Amino acid sequence: MVGRFIDKVTDSFSFMGGVALVLIMVHVNLDVMLRYLLGAPLSGTIEIVSYYYMIALVFLPLAAVEKRNGHISVELLSQNLSDRHQRLLIGLVSLVSAGYFSLLAWRLWVDAVEKAEVGETYTGSLSLPIWPPRFFMPLGCGLLAILLIYKSARLLSGDTSPLAKSPSHDGIGSGGEGRS
């Protein structure tokens, strides 16, 4: 039940990251089209893309990438370990990583609250409140920490399923050629 809940939240955050990607493409293309066709670019495109869409795109899908074992890994020494020792090592590393991302999420949350309290804005070609997307960072890191704790608990209890790499997300195709 916990795993299903984490999966649903992870998939939702990943979806929102995908929406941010689509918004970047639409917004930038619309800006370029208006700039060259009508000589009237959209005001604040760079600011909105930088302060809103990019933060959502980077931080919200972090847990989804981990769920699919899609983060970069280097297995110089661990590839020679037995399956059991690899599982234990990954479980312990996941636990340490969860600690790191928990601290990062907490610190980012404190910063986001401080910026919300002062109503942080960017003033350039337009006045843009930039405190709201600051909450994407601690939410993404916090969800990653929760997922890592769950993954670690499963691995340390003997479950090997968190180590399976999703074939549709291996980076090169559906044949699994991307894993070395």
Question: Which secondary structure elements does this structure contain, and how are they paired or packed?
Answer:
Elements: H1 2-37, H2 45-59, H3 62-67, H4 83-118, E1 121-123, E2 127-129, H5 136-156
Antiparallel strand pairs: 1-2
Helix pairs in contact: 1-2, 1-5, 4-5
Give a short summary of the structure.
The protein has 180 residues and is mainly α. It has helices spanning 2-37, 45-59, 62-67, 83-118, 136-156; strands spanning 121-123, 127-129.
What proportion strand? under 5%
Radius of gyration: 20 Å
What's the order of the H and E elements? HHHHEEH
Give the CA-based shape. elongated
Class from secondary-structure proportions = mainly alpha
Helix content: 55-70%
Number of strands: 2
Would you kindly provide a written description of the structure presented here, covering whatever features stand out?
This protein has 180 residues and is mainly alpha-helical. It has one domain (2-163). 63% of the residues lie in helices and 3% in strands. The protein is built from five helices and two strands, in the order H-H-H-H-E-E-H. It has a two-stranded antiparallel ribbon with strand order 1-2.
Descriptive labels:
63% helix, single chain, disordered C terminus, 5 helices, two-stranded antiparallel sheet, mainly alpha, 180 residues
